[in-house]
TrEMBL record:
Pfam families: HTH_PafC (PF19187), WCX (PF25583), WYL (PF13280)
Protein name according to UniProt: WYL domain-containing protein
Domain of life per record: Bacteria
Domain PafC HTH, chain residue ranges per copy: 11-133
Residue ranges of every copy of the WYL domain listed in the record: 153-218
UniProt-listed InterPro entries: CBASS_pafABC_assoc_protein, PafC-like, PafC_HTH, WCX_dom, WYL_dom
Length: 331
């Protein structure tokens, strides 16, 4: 910003509006540093600071008393040419994130910073610091560990970049192990899970794999095969096949978009604002994570086998909380 001589009133106002939050982000900063940052003369900065120091809003008395104005540390300003804001007005009354909202955003940013491609992005750290300072109260301390799939993501990314195939042992939801050789195309995330999408040479079709079910993952020196002209990467993460099974679920109308990746169809039945949708899944075991992720929202209606799979899995989880604690003392 060039706020030199000859600026109009609107440009001077723009400079002042940019200067105030900048000074708020720096507890203590010299006039020279501010001058270099905004590319203005030191005298322009001093004039602006003097103007800020006599600016404010009238209080209940409709008069500009001391507490109604900005204030600075005058000794530092006049003696050392250093700017330190000591009192703010109006700006403190602007809407702010609550401590809980700021903590949630910081957690999300920590998660992003744990990913390989974002490990060196200083902007994330700067944004987290600003969220901490600008929240209405001190955010709760949060710590997000690096994703378990981090090393796998790095291997796949390198393979995509080098244009080579990858090999790994894959554990499917049925508990079966298979060796796979895949042309990697893309990595995607859904909530906390990461997925690899690519061409599976075993199935001779596009497939999606969960990274946390892979083991012995490594890149080969075999170049990826040219993708045939009619092989397009589907937009939906989960694609159906002729062997898929139909499952009917019931859920609120407002929650139907949460099932978009499963391409739900049908609307028969349901009570009140609840509707029924039919999903196509590769196997009933795949419903367990879906239903528990939407606990209290989605209910499996049919078939009975699907209900039994989800019920038994939930019961096994509850049973772990019902284990009898060892008795202390007694005979």
């Amino acid at each position: 910003m060039n706020a030199g001589p000859g600026l109009g009133a609107s440009d001077k106002l723009t400079f002042l509006l940019a200067l105030v939050p900048f000074l708020m982000d720096h507890d203590r900063i010299s006039v020279t540093d501010v001058s270099e940052h905004f590319r203005v003369s030191p005298d322009r900065v001093r004039d602006a600071v003097n103007l800020i120091a006599v600016s404010g809003i009238p209080g209940e008395t409709r008069q500009y008393l001391h507490g109604d104005l900005f204030d600075i540390h005058w000794d530092e300003f006049e003696t050392n040419d250093v700017i330190v804001l000591t009192h703010l007005v109006a700006i403190d009354d602007s809407p702010r994130f609550s401590a809980r909202e700021a903590a949630a955003l910081i957690a999300g940013l920590q998660y992003l910073s744990s990913l390989p491609e974002n490990a060196d992005v200083d902007a994330i750290a700067t944004l987290m610091a600003k969220l901490t300072r600008s929240a209405s109260a001190a955010p709760s301390q949060v710590a997000v560990s690096g994703t378990d799939a981090r090393s796998s993501i790095a291997v796949v990314q390198a393979a995509v970049r080098d244009g080579v195939q990858i090999e790994f042992d894959y554990l499917n939801a049925r508990g079966e192990h298979e060796s796979r050789r895949v042309d990697p195309w893309r990595i995607q995330s859904v909530d906390r899970d990461w997925y690899l999408r690519g061409w599976c040479h075993l199935r001779e079709a596009a497939r999606t794999f969960r990274l946390d079910r892979m083991s012995d993952l490594h890149a080969t020196d075999v170049p990826t095969s040219p993708r045939s002209a009619d092989t397009l990467l589907p937009e939906n993460l989960f694609e159906g096949s002729a062997s898929d099974l139909d499952v009917t679920v019931e859920l609120p109308t407002s929650a139907v978009p949460l099932l978009a990746d499963y391409a739900p169809h049908g609307s028969a039945g349901g009570k009140g604002d609840r509707v029924r949708r039919t999903l196509r899944v590769a196997h009933f075991h795949g419903l367990k994570r879906l239903v528990t992720g939407l606990a209290g929202v989605v209910e499996v209606v049919d078939p009975a086998e699907a209900r039994a799979v989800v019920r038994d899995w939930a019961a096994a989880g509850v049973a772990r909380y019902d284990e009898t604690e060892p008795t202390v003392g007694g005979e």
